[in-house]
Structures are given as C-alpha cells and as structure tokens.
Amino acid sequence: MAGHRIFEKLSTLSTSSSFCDHQHQIVKRNIQNILTLQNSGNKGMQYATLDEVTAAINKMKNGKSPDELNLMSEHLKCGGQIVPIILKALFDRVLQERDVPEIFQSGIITPIHKSHGKPLQDPNSYRRITVCSIMGKVFETIHMSKISPDLDRLQNKLQRGFTKRVSPTNAALLLTEALADAKDRKKKVFVAFIDASKAFDVVWHDSLMLKLFQSGVKDEDWFVVYKWYQQMRSKVKWDGHFSRAFDEQQGVRQGGILSTLYNILKSKQIWASVLERHIAHQHAQMILY
C-alpha cells in the first residue's frame, strides 16, 4: 500500500519557507501558558445528561461505514436503554480525568476519488475521508453543542458555509444579482474564487487550539479538545487492506464532528482580515463571499 505514504506525509508536521518561526514560538509559548493555568480535573463533574446522550445517538446517520471496532450508529440505536447509560458514564469519566480514550482518537482513512478527469494513479486525485469511532462521534456531538454558543457569537454574519440554518445559496443569489446589476450598468466586476489546496490536511493543531481558547472555550471544554488532537492516529483502508497506523500531527479530519471548529475559527480570522482592510460586500465593484 505505497499510496498511504502521501496521507502519512500530509499528517506529519512540517514547516515551509513562508512559515514564521517567531510566530511559531509565540503560539507554542501561549499554549504552554494555557496548560499551566489549567486546574486538575473536577472529579464530581458530569459531562452530559442521559437525555443529551440519547439525543446525540439519535442524531447519528444510519448506513455509514463501520468504525475500527466494526460499530455503526445502528448498534447504539438498537442496543437498548443500557447504551446511553454506559456512554454517559464513559463521557463523565473522560471529562473528570481529562483523558480521551485511544479508540476515540483512532480513525480509518478512506481515499475518495475527486473525479473530474483526475488520474486514478495519482494519490493527489483522492480526498481523504476519515471514518471515526461512532462512540467518539456521539461524544463530539455533545461537546460541539456545549461550545458552539461561544463560537456562534463570534461568527461573522456574512459567513455562509458550515453554518447551521444558513444556506450558501443565499450568497450565490447575492453574487448573481451583483453580476446582473453590473452587466445592466455596463460596469466591470471582478470575482475571485479561492480554494486553499489541502486546507483540511495541513492545519497546525497548536494554532487551532490557541484560537479556540481565545474564542472563549476554557477549562475542561478546551482541554478535552486539546487532548483529542494531541494523540490522533489513523490508518488507510484500500481494497479491504489496512496500512500501518501513523500519528496525525497536523490537519483536521474530514468526517469528524470537531473538524467544523477549523471552518468556524478560520472563517472568523479571514473575515476580520478582510473587513480590517475595508474590502467588504458594500463596495460598488467588489463582492466577497
């Protein structure tokens, strides 16, 4: 399975000529300061109610690939009343001990061909989709519901992608109307579509954790996410065979619930930069979505 090496390489932390070593040191130092300030786990803290666990289980989609333990959402849904009780006890323990089970951090990468005429023999023609632990996804769903209010209040109102109850179609309508208006008035209009190459795959974990903390997620809620990303491991599945497991030192998983953190936090940073430079949607000849 030589093809797995490209995914392993993408998961290996690396720097480039454009990488600022000074900024790197600042972020590392800030993370260490945050860790120093964290108190020990609260032994009496409960992570979730039985109703919250049950609701999270019911949110899981059916018919998906089994995880590393060959478990699917159907197993949890049809397992009876004991399943939420056991998962609640497990989740409470995770929060109290501030430690994440290895199986939650383990994933199976399935390469999905991007089509559009891309060569089948080229590993770069494949998108990595990670099948995560179904128990871990239930945990992630509950955790996201707890920290989402801190993130939602910071999200720019112009952000359309990866936002609940908001459709990117609204942005498409604004764009097409702007183009139609420019055409009617015989005005020039410039539209830029930007797609960052392998954006999910090369996210720097420490930077993501610092942005999460600065967004208002603190204490156990922050520490659990930090621990989750510290020891993630994956293996590649191809034609029924598995590669050796490797550490995921960078990147966020396409397929993981917590991966939406990256989209929320990164979009917030981009919009802040755009508006700071006075490049906004109200400008006559430029629209940015």
Automatic annotation (TrEMBL):
It holds the Pfam family RVT_1. Residues 93-289 form the Reverse transcriptase domain. This is Reverse transcriptase domain-containing protein. It comes from Mytilus galloprovincialis.
